[in-house]
Task: structure prediction
Amino acid sequence: MTDQKGSYKQIVKATTIFGGANLFKVLAALLKGKLLALFLGPDGMGINSLFVSSTNVITNVTGLGLNFSAVRNISQAKESGDISKFSKTLSVFKKLVMFTALFGFAATILLSPLLSRFTFGSDKYVISFVLLGLMVFFTALSSGYASIIQGVRDIKNYGKQIVVSSLLSLVAIAPLYYFFRMDAIIPALIAGAFITYLVVLYYSKESGAIKVNVGRREVIAEGREMLKLGIAMMVATSIGALMHYLVNTFVTNYGSLSDQGLYQAAISITNQSVGLIFSAMAVDFYPKLAAVCNDNSKVREMVNQQGEVMVLISAPILAMLVVFSPLAIRVLLSAEFLPSADMVRIFALGMLFKAASYSIGAISFAKGDKRVFFVLEGLYTNFSMLLFLALGYIVGGLMGLAWSFTIMHAVYLAVIIFVTGKLYKYRLSANYIKIFLIQLFFITTAAVSSLVLDNVSAIAVGISTIALSFIFSYRELDKLIGVKSLLDKVLKRKV
Result:
């Protein structure tokens, strides 16, 4: 029991540390969204999201998944204690990252006419996409060097690079949007990517490696393992980026640019509300899961513990988002985006299903099971997203998008539980099931009441569910890690 409590404490500790850093990133993203909303409006936000989603496809494809797969190799080389092996691994990885960055840069330029025509239906934005080749280049480099910091589990510097890059990027791009409005979109995207690269490069230098020269043959030989798993991850994430891009273009062309802007605003607010929790847990969780990947009983225990904490922390936040979505939109965006308030409520419900499946979905990747990971995360998840969202929009417009998002993630949770149970003997713990169902009841109650009751009654019911969700999470976390005793210790220290 003591070991279990220690394990839960480690999860919460890592989440708190990384979450604190990611909070700055989220706040910066929210402020950036506010700037876009104020100075560009729904149309401008829609154009910005189309540029980002289209270049993300290029970044994911040309990145070959190295920023994901290399974390495992770097972590293992670091833990081996062999400084020469570790330094060689880093040197190989850096060369591969530079190649992928140049590849992405060239691909964006070559495909710029096609990207402009497919995305916007004209050649008006060819030069814009050519310039965005620089954004793809710097994004690839910064993602690669961030993987080094994550691989060595340098919590301090990982947090620093997130905070510093987020703040500096915001300070740099704010004047651009203020003075140049729509004309600032491309310069702002490039500037943000460049600043992030410089910051990540600075903090990755403290990895502890020594200088090692490696030739082309060594790069190919040593990088083969990274590339095998990386390409599987690349295909999966690229399909995801492509599906997101296709959803955006479908909404724009079937509906309107304004609808696309409202959809993007709603999904962005929802993702950012709990995104920092997902990001925080991923940084520490994946390397630890990979270390025990051959022991199914340890995998099952770690995944359930991670999932329980994930749901307990994210559920009260999502409940607040459901109840106060109009306020969140006014504060974070503008009154112009209020039509997306009900979308946010339903997206929040779907996000709880995503939170519940998050840790389970990492099992196949941690085990290095490329085929299963590709089928589940690459094909099934992404094609079902495109199908559900497209049909949802055709049938029910913007609210159809929201409901289809929730249904898709509910179905995925059932599928991932079934598949991992068959292949890896994974099963949900009784405590995990209890936690999820109770929090699902609270959030569903808040969401449904907000849609069918008058404002006063909906807020009364909503605040009650928020309180109950917080109380339940507090009591469960107290059982798992002793929250009350930890708070008492902190308060005594301050006194």
Remarks:
- The mean pLDDT is 83.
